[in-house]
Structure of Glycosyltransferase:
Amino acid sequence: MEILFIHQNFPGQFRHLAPALVQRGHRVTALCMKKECPATWNGVSMVSYGVARGSTKGIHPWVGDFETKVIRGEACFRRALRLRDQEGYSPDLIIAHPGWGESLFLKEVWPKAKLAIYCEFFYTPEGADVGFDPEFPQEDAGSRCRLRMKNSNSMLHFDIADAAISPTAWQASTFPEPFRSRITVVHDGIDTATLTPDPDVTLTLRTKAGVKIRLTREDELITFVNRNLEPYRGYHIFMRALPELLRRRSNVRVLIVGGSEVSYGARPKQGGSWKQIFIDEVRPQISDTDWQRVHFLGKVPYDEFVKLLQLSTVHLYLTYPFVLSWSLLEAMSAGCAVLASDTEPLREVITHDKNGRLVDFFDTRAIVEQICHLCDNPALRERLGRAARELATNQYDLKTICLPRQLEWVESLQP
């Protein structure tokens, strides 16, 4: 089968699926927006494209997001036309992440090709991320109108998509009927063979002062991981729990992974970064001595990330009701004792006191109490971590569970 992948930052969620399809004898091509795009990647033929224009200055704010998606969709459409007309390329199946609009017009180029889309999230005015955090309310009465326009890209895909896939049942449930019934739920998959518990793991941490600290499983370590440190992933709540946690745990070290940009939600109105805003808020409540035990590690290499999880005494994961992070399942696979917010889609993977603990997203006192309780109870941490890994290996393992199901889904779409 001739398969075309569409993802602005390929491989993205398709990093395992695309090479696996090559290995099964399919011819695989990918369209992406990377400026420096290799000719091939793991057997996948790579084709880059770029946008010809930017967004219109002063455009109506309700349609700005949609215009951006149309611009990208047109760029992908123009590149697809060149592939068809100049190279005779014609895919049997197009697999796309439609979130940035690239796949909007590909059926106009290849009307006979089947289109399968990755359904990551559908925005709703109630019951999910919007309006969840009263500290960051909807800005005005027009917010619902803006949200409806933001979903127009997804709605336009419903008419042309032949199939869809979503990583969790809750994320799939955010999509409206009748399209929801056409979504197959299969997670992207976790490499549980790499993310294993390791009682002998060590890691040398270099502080800002240049001091090297050798960390082992004997150290009391709290890990907190975001792609970027921002409210959507509970960074502000965690930071507000930090002063009391440091006062109560005199030996704890806090290891914080994440960048200073914004992955989800809005940027701070006052400028700067969410990371620094909440550091500035809590820093006066923390002594200089205690602050030395807080380590902002930025974005770390993957092998170092794995070691951090293997070292973790308690792993804290907070999120609005939104897309589930890979890092949560990776922490479970590594056998972490996980304390997580009692929000969707976490209830899908964590059963309270069975394979982790759930806590009110906004309750900083309860977060501190639960972390301290877990730190003081190694047998409990061991039980929760063992059950967490069992769930990860039995339901989310890449090679034995998720990838075979993804391949079966793809090949079921063969003409």
